[in-house]
Amino acid sequence: MKKHAIQTLWKQHTFLRPVIPMLILAFVIWGLSLRPPVLIAAMASAMSDTYYAFNPNEPDSSLLFVDIDHESVKTYGRWPWPRDILGKGFEKLSEARVIGLDIIFAEPTDQAKDEALADSLLGLPVIGGIFLNGPRLSSLGADVYDHLLDSSLMQAGTARLVESDRLEAPVSPIRESIPFLAALNTLPDADHRFRHYPLAFWVGDLAIPNLGVQMARLARHEDLIFTERGIFLGDQRIPADGEGAIRLNFYRESSYPSISFTRLMADDFNPSEMQDKIVIIGVSEAGVSDLRATPLGQFPGPLMHLTFVANLLDGSIPEEIGGWKMAAILLFLCLLWLPCLRIQNPWQRIPVYLAIFTAIFGAGLGGYLYGGLWIEIFYPGLWLTLAIFGGEIHLFMESRAGSEALRSAFSSYLAPEVVEKLIQHPESLRLGGEARELSLLFTDLRGFTARSETMNAESMVQLLNAYFEPMTRAVFTYKGTLDKYIGDAIMAIYNAPLDDADHPFHACLTAIAMLKALETFNADHPDTDPLRMGIGVNTGPAVVGNLGSSFRFSYTAIGDAVNVAARLESATKEVNLELQADKKEGKDVPVDYADILLGESTYQAVRHRLPCTALPPRPLKGKSGFLSIYSLKWKEVPQSLLEAHRAR
């Protein structure tokens, strides 16, 4: 009886059938989130990196980056500098609360200058840098070990940290003048972008904090403690991952408080400006700095450490959501997605799907902005994408019988191709169009018909294909719609199907780009006679849309404005002949050439932006009376204008 009831329920509620596969899919994706392959991890990070653009915070004003920048290098020469220069600058920082050095000084230089730097560091609250590379710790001597011991974390316990038995440390006597040492290492994610910040490293049996942690310890007189309940700096909990690294919450690079090292050396610099500042000193000069690829671009290495301190001060270190919490999110999505299967109309399902995608991103962004949470929305988004795909297949299979019935009903009086379109996209067969203002462009090669009589078919096709390539690119570059090729002629539409408020200008830019491209084309084909082209551009109301029959139609435009554009193109040849004749007779001519003719409306729209000249009004075929026409002096238009308005 129970088995029969289950079978009945399964048959009656067909929308329940994909639930089990979707639950399995959720379990698989959850497992993927726990140990993602490199490509998946990179894609997940790239999607959630968009959060940073919404970060409303700025680093605390007590922080300062003293930047050995391009200006400094221009002033004091190529890096590294003589160390007595650095010493003079460091002496100006006597009133700072903490000074972090993102510089190692691992090699000895001139002894007197090394000693001068060491003397300038005496008595300063300075933290020196070590780099976890180079010689083994055991070869550095007891004095280095003792210095590291004084700088290490006292309550690291059995914390899981990145380990190293190698390091580079400052040389004597500089090291003896530095009260504390700290690591300068940061580790990239799978896609080689820097998002996480290791709090500390095991160096032998010592837990050496990273520079930002050491600066915070000294500034706040609190220790970083690893406990079973979590990681704490004083009473502040630090949301770190299983290897003791936090996710940095980046700010806009321009928002980091910084001054050039040259400012320290200025005669009018007052050391009291540094009072109670938390200062980090490092290099940003290109070719010298350890630039780090972050989600917001290339950051100088010192800003990685400063970002951590800033995050501590404003409490904005995000807590990453993973593990069972990610599993709960995926299960909630299963429940949210299930009612979508009851929606029969696919066009009604699409906005629901979009709403769920938007809700996923909104939840991730909201958690980041208001909850201090970091949700890798890639995994819920991946599940939803695959669930939609699977669900749509399920619904398609369920509706297949209905589609066959529809096909049978219409096949007696509609062509099979039309029936298929009707079933899949009924709106695509709607005839007619809409009236709107358009700009129309027509081109034609002069004398090409006569030339084609002397060419074999293969050569003619090759030449036309090579010609059409740059011409078509010009149409697309300036937001045009290629309507059709008519022999060697081209028709293009502007302001349809997509709106373009500046369509007369874009049509004119296309015409200019075409003629410039034709010059290049002729130069690239010296074995053939140069091609010449006439272009007509007109603006006005027309009807545009799918025009034709139910079994064959095309997107095009019709109307008087279209006809005028075509007539303007054909008039270019006659106008140019008249101009040349007048010029031979010694008459003044408004222009030497008229390769582009504009109608009145187009001219009025572009006359203040492009060089145009009025020509004598003339009759156009199929039009009564004389029409005003204008020549666009395309050779006077700089290439920079064309580049500035290319469609992006």
Automatic annotation (TrEMBL):
One Pfam family hit: Guanylate_cyc
Keywords: Membrane, Transmembrane, Transmembrane helix
PROSITE patterns: GUANYLATE_CYCLASE_2
Listed transmembrane segments: 321-338, 350-371
Domain Guanylate cyclase: start-end pairs: 439-569
UniProt-listed InterPro entries: A/G_cyclase (IPR001054), Adenylyl/Guanylyl_Cyclase_3/4 (IPR050697), CHASE2 (IPR007890), Nucleotide_cyclase (IPR029787)
Protein name (record): Adenylate/guanylate cyclase domain-containing protein
